[in-house]
Each structure stands twice: as C-alpha cells, then as structure tokens.
Amino acid sequence: MNTCHCNEPFITEGGAVFRGIDIAYHSWGSLNESCDNVIWVCHALTANSDVEAWWPGMVGDGLAFDTSKYFIVCANILGSCYGTTGPLSINPLTGNSWKNEFPVITIRDIVNLHEVLRRHLGINSVELIIGASIGGYQALEYSIMYPDIIKRLIFIAAGAKQTPWAIAFNESQRLAIEADPTFFNGDPAGGSKGLRAARSIALLSYRTSYAYNKTQAEDNDEKMGYYKASSYQDYQGDKLVKRFNAWSYYRISQLSDSHNVGRGRGGVRNALKSVKAKTLCIGIRSDILYPVDEQKYVAQNITGGSYAEIDSFYGHDGFLIETEQVTELIKNFLNDKR
Q1: Catalytic site residue 287?
Q2: Residue 65: phi, psi to the nearest 5?
Q3: Which is catalytic among the residues 49, 80, 97, 133?
Q4: Does domain 2-163+261-335 have CATH number 3.20.20.20?
Q5: What pLDDT, in 10s, does the model give residues 204-254?
Q6: How far apart are CA 232 and CA 238, in angstroms?
Q7: Among residues 66, 180, 257, 287, which one is catalytic?
C-alpha cells in the first residue's frame, strides 16, 4: 500500500474543510510514456485499495486487469478505515479522532479525492474506469465530472441514483448501529455490536433466497436450533467487526444514500448525456439490491451505451464470484476499438 498526503485544504460538497488529507492506494503494472494506459478500479462499501485481495483472479498478467498492458490503480475512499482519512483519523483541530464528528461526505467528494491522486501520479487520462455497487457510483460520477479524462466506463450492479429500496436497507443498518449505546460514548470499540447486526442486515440484500436455501440448507430434519443460516450471519458479522469500524460504516452508508447524478444538473437523464466515455453497463440477473433495470436505464441514456448481463444465483455479490463471466466482458470491451 502507498499513501499520498495532500497538504492543501480539501473542501467537501457540503462545505466541510479537511486541513490535509491522506489517500491510501495500490497500483500494479507500469505507466506508459503517454501516461494513459490506466485502469482505475473503484471499490465497494467495505473493500479497500488492494484489488487482488477482494477481487481475486482479476489482477495480473493476462487477466482482466492485465498488468502487462495497463497501469492499474485503486484508491481507498474517504471515510473508510484502510489508510485514507476517516473517522478514526486525528482531527488536527482537536487532537482526537473524528469518530461521530467526521463530516458527511458524498460520492462527488470521493471523485475529487481520486482527482488529487490522479494528478499526484501524473496520469493524463484513464483508459478504463470500472466499479461495482458504490464503486459503480464513483466510476459514473467520475465520467460525468471529468468527461475528458475518462475514455471507457464499465458500470456494474449500481444505479444513477440511490433508490428508496436501497436507502431503506441502509437506514435499517444505521438504526442497528444507533441501538448500540457504545457508538456514542467514545468507547474505542464503539458500535461493534451494532455493526455486527448491520452486517447481518446487509447480507440479506447482497444475496438471494436461492443462494441461502442452497448453501445454508440443513441436513438434519430433527434440528431445533443452531442453524447453519444463523451461524453464517453471526460469522459474517464478527468477521466485519474485526476489520472495520462502526463510524466508517455509518458515514459510508450515508455516502451511498446521497448518490444522485442528477443533483444540480437538471436531472438524471441530463447528467447522463454528459458522459463521453464508451460505456458498458453490466447487470446481475438475480440482484435484488440493484435490479437490472437500473443498469439498463444508464445504458439507454448514455450516448452509445451498451448493456450486458451476468447470470448468477448469488445476487448482488455475483460480480465478486462470477470471475469468468466478468473477465470475458471486460476483455471484449477493451478489445473493441470501435
């Protein structure tokens, strides 16, 4: 992992000012002389800049993100807990960690942070920006905010605007965190029980009933407790608590909810018209969090946009699991020089 430290004030869309900011990032491959052979990967909610870790089989020589041809970059987002400035970073005005005082941020703030890193790395243009879920939000916003920088866009399992359905899932998770009193009392491990419950709620939106009914099925009809599905939810909650924190989770869920490319741009359709990048939108047939109609809508309203669909019974998480299908779509898109 590398860190870019920016000493200049960073002003958010909401007017908050960070007096210096850290950006954690990973990179693979080499930047060419033209400084334009770049694949920029935008990560999802609780992931980080290490694409090899959370998207195995995608980065390397001959793989979807081909390190023999491209310079691959992924930056950890603002508000997270993997090296970029977030709620557990020190607020220079108080000398203490931000925690609940960390400002509300937006996807546009994340894009402007990406721009700081792009200039730091000397990148002239981005051949492909790709993201799924809130990574898709970032990739789409980047293509709207800086249309002359982004040449190609792959938008996976996301939408142009956060839906009430997705907001309801996130609010339920925030309610779980708020129900844990340690979230507010300064406890170093504050909100851990709430975060555990929030993760359990989130998982229900990431998968499908078919996936649960197959992978967590019982083989003992006499059982009256200690179910596999219960153990799975407990395990996943504990797993997230060990690597994340409730303050980051809370702020990033708010970040997702404020996503709306049409804000201040005359509506979503008008905003999508400003995308110049050659665009491929990918939907996952079984995704209940971001149904395929959302990706189709984006494809239909970006000039020359195209749509493809992944067949997976894993729901929203299919983009992480169906590596062969995703790789084929990415390679075909990059090889299409039309």
Answers
A1: yes
A2: -100, 85
A3: 133
A4: no
A5: 999 999 999 999 999 988 888 889 999 999 999 999 999 999 999 999 999
A6: 10
A7: 287
